[in-house]
Design brief:
The structure holds three protein chains of three kinds. By secondary structure, chain A is an all-alpha fold. Helices cover about 75% and strands about 0% of the residues of chain A. The relative contact order of chain A is 0.12. The chains are: A mainly alpha, B mainly alpha, C alpha+beta.
Chain lengths: ~300, ~375, ~350
Amino acid sequence: MPDFARAQLNRQRANAALFLGPAVVLLACFFVAPVVVDLGLAFTDMDRTLAVTRFTLENFERMATRDSRLLASLGITAIFVLSTLSIFNVTFALLLAITTTAVPKAFGAFFQAVWLLPRMSPSVVYALLWAWVVDPNERGLLNQILMHVLGLPPIDLRGNLPLLTIILANGFIGASLGMIIFTSAIRSIPEHLFHAARADGAGPLAIVRHIVFPALRWPISYMTIHQTLSLLVSFEYILLITAGGPFYDTTVFSLYAYRRAFENGQYAYGAALSLILIVIGVIAALGMWRLMDMRRLLQPPRIEVH
Amino acid sequence: METDTLDTVAGTTLVNPPLRLDWPKLARRARLRRAAGQSALLAFLLAVSVPIILPYFWMVVISFTARSGGVSTQVLWTACAIVVPAVMIYSMVHLMTSSRGLRVAAGVVLLAIAAGLLAAHVGHRLHFANYRFLWDPNIVEEIRSKATAGGQFPSVWVAFRNSLALAMSETVIILAVASLAGYYISRFAFRGREAFLQGMLVLHAFPAMTLIIPLFLILHWVGLLDTIAGVILVLATIELPFYVFVMKGFFDAVPWDIEMSAMTDGATRRQAFRMVVLPQVRVGLIAVAVFAFIRAWEEYIFVRTMLIENTNWVMSLYLFWVSDDIMGVDYGIVAAVSVFYVLPSLLLYVFCQRYLTQMTIGGIRG
Amino acid sequence: MMARIELRDIRKSWVAATAVERIDLAIDDGAFIAVLGPSGCGKTTTLLMLAGIYSPTSGEIAFDGARVNDVEARDRNVGIVFQSYALYPNMSVLDNIMFPLRFKKIERSEAEARAREIAALVRIDRLLDRRPSQLSGGQQQRVALARALVKRPHLLLLDEPLSNLDASLRLTMRTEIRRIQRDLGVTTILVTHDQIEATTMADRIVVMNAGRVEQEGTAKDLYERPQTLFVASFVGSPPINLLEGRAGDGAIKVREATLKLAGSAAGDVVLGIRPESLHANASGMPSRIVAAEPMGREVLYSAEGALGLVRFIEAGAEARHREGETVSLAFSAESALLFDKASGRRLDARIAS
């Protein structure tokens, strides 16, 4: 091989190692490896001792036949995901996007900033604020308003309506991402379409129906799938606000796996439960990849030299 | 067909003259519509935003007013009674006039009046005692007058320092790794490029939270459990696919000509990358850095799970345990710690907002 | 029909800049007006203010003598064809045309009939099922026109309607639009930067520059009696020769030539002579040909003479003079125009014959 070509080849390999190497190593160790580990773990009997003594299918047997809490958890998960998604993450996000783009820019920016606040603040702080607001005594902000403004008796939202509480808490966070994405889509609609519709006699509602919604069809589908997945696997705020309780009343599936592993020490069982989520995650990820415009992302490079 | 003229039009409905319109009535109706519409929208937005604004405002107020043994909302409502009308008056001014001078003048005047009223009515209630955790490391013990459930509490600055180290390390790792990988994917042809990209896309959409149990075990097996380093590596990795795509997007936007001319000027590709291309994506780097930092600063689940003995403290854990211990007893300190914890995130977000809105992945902005 | 449209002391300014400084205009019912000017002169902004999309910062717009500043766009019954056509991408051509009729409380069957009728008029009746993305530029423009006309507007506004079309299509559409306007009798305002479009389609032309009206009149007025330097140089192709000189004592001195004046003028002036007014003539000023550009129907020459560098044209496809050749150029005194250099306004003084 001529010198130039050999030097090229060496440099090419060096470049690959230098640029891609770190990413590949990190991803292999902490992203791909865990998937494999989880797969294996699900078939063991690892418990608090963190030792594996045998391989067994009993985790799956337990999931299928003996775990009533799991069944309840699935029900809770369904209610939680469907409610939060349909009320907040998609619908309310749409509403916010449309209303904040319909008012003068300064106001729109202000309200968008307000709605981004929960997402931007640390989860512990957000959970703390929720705890204060729904405090069952007189101190809680919610009760203050109920009692002094509306004349109603105080309520214990977290204790009596825990599912509602976590739906609201996650909803406020979830609405903000959709709001951003939808706003961006609305802003990219060419202005002259709005002008034409106005001159054609369309009022604000007609404009939303004929100009805005058609442009949002794709973002809405993407958001729905993306947020469904996100709600299925995230439990951070639930953990912080209700800890999955009272008892297991607000323990969604993902939290259930976490609690079994880290509160009860049943690591193998937790891994088996997580495996279900991992499979769902992979399927959803592949599905979303199909939806997105892959060709645009795969522009071929134009320089061939190293 | 090309010669059709008068005949075509004469036979159509188009020649029927339209009726005369009542212009003054239409003008009146339009003014009403506009006023009602805008007011309704703003009222709606305000109504749904109050549940968010109020608690944050409350948190700040409590941190400056609460005393041991309880919390009253009187200051909150008084402050609201002053601030809300001021904001509404300013909004009306802002809506009614488009002159910048008038708006600024109104803003300044209202601000002065509000500040004055606030000083008069609630000024005397403000104090910094709740912020004493900043210089007094033993507040929890003092309040509880015994050793606490969370073990010995360190000074908040220990937690702050650790959080800072965690966030900055994670950010640096992400910046470096994502830039390198993003650039390579964007600019180089290599075998398996498509597969790699597809893999990254799948990983990006894949929820990493599901892997928390096996990650726990992996860290345990390599001896990184209960170390900040372990958390840093895990956090950086699970965010990586997203940031690789973001950086790729930024690199895609850099024109090829710049790189080509650098190479004809004698640079190797690595040099071209370092000297010519990287500066072009400065905006992307800032956006990624800010976003990654805020994310790491607020991290709770992974630190809680991976840092098992209370030897390593970060801000999220600190706040959690402080509130767990003294919540019922001393709201003020908890509020003050919260404010202290939130401030960096908010400041970063406010100052870098325009960079954040430029992040895009495959056309979807976030 | 629709009556007068008046713009009184209209001004439109944004935070960063002022698009329209001052406009005073009156347009009669049924007239076809062209607003002609370079890009950025405020003509599109004016159009959108008439449509109700933008609101004037100050001043009054009146339809029929009644103030309409506050009337919303949807109530003004104005048809507008945008430069980009602005067709609704997710609707078929038929739905696009029928769109304005949704808001007029008309039965769907009647609305569809009207839409088909006007589609036949602009000759797109065979494209009704297609989407805008499947149409050519010319077809899209006709759909936009149909959509604007289907509501039987009081006022038709056209924003650079021909600029995106190729030359032959432009010619066809020019005739069609003029024909439709004449048949329907709807007051029409056309905005363009192309003087050919303006002169061939409209009855009267309003020339705008930097947010102001420079002159208003027929094509002939603008050509023969331009009131400002800008109008003189903007109207007329090839552009007028503008030669700087100094006036005084009943004469003006331009470079090496001194010409007698009829009337008085003083100070720095600009002499305007159109290329078509200069002829190679036995008793003219000796001028040396510097360039000869055949332009198809005529040849454009640049020549250097006593007045400086001037351009003149001669009919015919072939150049009869060569570079370096000396010809004697003359122009008729009546066709020459004099402008005050500082203000740009045309002076009454003329060249003496």
